[in-house]
Amino acid sequence: MGRTVLVTGGTGGLGSAVTAGLLADDWRVVVPYRSAAELKRLPEDDKLTTIEADLFDPHAVQACVAAASGHGASPLRAVVNLVGGFAMGGRLHETPIEEFERLLRINLRPAYLVCQAALPVLIDNGGGSIVCVSAQSALRPFPGASGYITSKTALLGLAAALHAEYASQHVRVNTILPGIIDTPANRAEMPHADRTGWTAPAQIAETIRFLCSDASAAIRGAQIPV
């Protein structure tokens, strides 16, 4: 029997590498997108299903999960939450509340809604894997990104709550904590940064592939630096 994974943010700098890797592992991969231009970043593959969706809208999220779970021979067994955003700015007293709330919304709302919709399906299918993406800065903050760091710290809390609530039903929830990912968006945001220690998306994708696989069945509730 096949298996399906829902990858949000699957067309992004990290997401396109994750999507390609999971397809290579013979997953059926369902990827929501906002603009048709994003699809150019994805490989052509019979196992890839794309669906236009606004992941901040609960009804659109339900439609994505329905698309991922309506393929009878290939049950939904994994969810990868990659939607998020990063921004640098001033210190907290220099940061407008609107910017703070924007980062909370983009880094938390899609993950919450997607997990909320997908969990009943995962449970009905006998369990599976949820992978969330926080950041190393949630544990080692730096100045000028209070909204981003707060939102990524809250995501750790969400993942921990999901682990506490659903581990007994064979849903394993793990979080990876990347450093700075070497994506075009991060290069544009930090044009003068030293990129020596940045990590390539394909390297992080390898960890996500493992966490989705049955080989990671013993890893539950983990926070994994990558």
Tell me what you see in this structure.
The two termini are 31 Å apart. It contains six helices and seven strands. The protein has helices at residues 15-24, 58-69, 97-124, 146-166, 184-189, 201-212, and strands at 4-8, 28-33, 48-52, 76-81, 128-133, 171-177, 223-225. The chain is an alpha/beta fold. The protein has a seven-stranded parallel sheet with strand order 3-2-1-4-5-6-7, sandwiched between helices. It has a single domain (4-225), classed as Rossmann fold (3-Layer(aba) Sandwich). Helix 2 packs parallel to helix 3 (97-124) and helix 3 (97-124) packs parallel to helix 4.
CATH topology: Rossmann fold
Strands of the largest sheet, in order across it? 3-2-1-4-5-6-7
Number of helices: 6
Strand content: 15-25%
Average per-residue pLDDT, rounded, comes to 94
Q: CATH homologous superfamily name?
A: NAD(P)-binding Rossmann-like Domain
| Uncertain ranges | none
Q: Tally of extended strands? A: 7
CATH architecture field: 3-Layer(aba) Sandwich
Number of self-contained structural domains: 1
Q: What string, H for helix and E for strand, traces the elements in order?
A: EHEEHEHEHEHHE
Radius of gyration: 17 Å
The biggest sheet amounts to: 7 strands, parallel
Shape: globular
Structural class: alpha/beta
